[in-house]
Amino acid sequence: MQHVLGYQCTLCGAEFPFGPELLTCPLCGEKGILDIRYDYSYIGKHFTRESLQANRDNSMWRYAPLMPVRDVGQASFLRIGWTPLYKSHRLGDQLGLKQLYIKDDGLNPTASLKDRASGVAVAKALELGYDTIACSSTGNAASSCAGNAARMGLKTVIFVPERAPQGKVAQLLIFGANVISVKGDYRQTFELSKAAIEKWGFYNRNAGINPVMVEGKKTVALEIAEQLNWQPTDWVALSVGDGCTFGGVYQGFYDLLQLGFIDRIPKILGVQSFGCAPFVEAVREGRALRPTQENTLADSIAVGVPRNPVKALRAVEKSGGHWLAVTDEDILAAMRLVGSTEGVFSEPAGATGLAGVVRAVEQGIIKPNESVTAISTGSGLKDVTNALRAAGKPFLCEPDIKALEASGRIS
Length: 411
Fold this sequence. Notes:
- This protein is of the alpha/beta class.
- The chain has 16 helices and 13 strands.
- Helix 4 packs across helix 5, helix 4 crosses helix 8 and helix 13 crosses helix 14.
């Protein structure tokens, strides 16, 4: 791993040599989340725009030179990444934007962006000789872990809060996971998974503390930049839960800036629900994060105690971005909006970034002459109950053409 220099603690700044299973800073404990540091000079000798243009591997593994994993046969994995980046036909104009793009990561193998981290988790577990991976999750990380592990013959032990949507639980069970439904919130679910991992020695896929997971999630930013011919939009917007995905988006653009692939990092818009907005509240009040209630229908971002706060806060600060909260009603409206105008079916957390774009435009945070990429982090099929809340019910009609005509439904 000549391209990896080592780890650096995001709290105390201490540096450590790269080791396969160092999760957090030995000096700062669990809150000492680590960055993985790369030798960009070495990487740049072999990894260029031209080499990517010639690369026919249309998956996230085209960016393997920027990931801390060895080749363990990733060609046999589920095909993760290289999801479509749609240029808006109508919605951007409707919002008064210079241009709007929608990155549909709900088209990953298990229907969420979390496949990117889980692919790296499976690769690392295979590299280190594990036979079982474990994690806690509100749903998407769990199902992605189970599906990607099943493909490569690994077992999974998954901890989810009791409130996890049934669509995601169904995925877990179909993928053969040992599912532990915890009678509690996400914080209690995480603590139980942590204790179980320590007791039984499973590979730890918990993205909030495992620094390797960010390296998979950042590939969504690498793709956005490449798909836009290395001219990213002025803004990139997405929802925030634990902070890991959000930090990963910044890291991806940072890597490309260091390599000279892009000349700036887009401003990053972090969007939460008012019902669970620890980042937004902390920034607004100028204080440290505090535990909050997990009172939002967007289950994927219902994280009252984020495990990766430093990387998330850094993403907004260093990019010149912004934090914003929206209501659950805003989220449902964004689900309808992106579906009816652009044909993208987003789950609540997947549409939260777009809901934030709508509010940011209204508040003058995003200007009319600016361009935006909104990341849809998960498919609406993950949470059909809330999709129906957003869309409403179909019209029930007698099987008679006169009844249909009299209804006025068709004109």
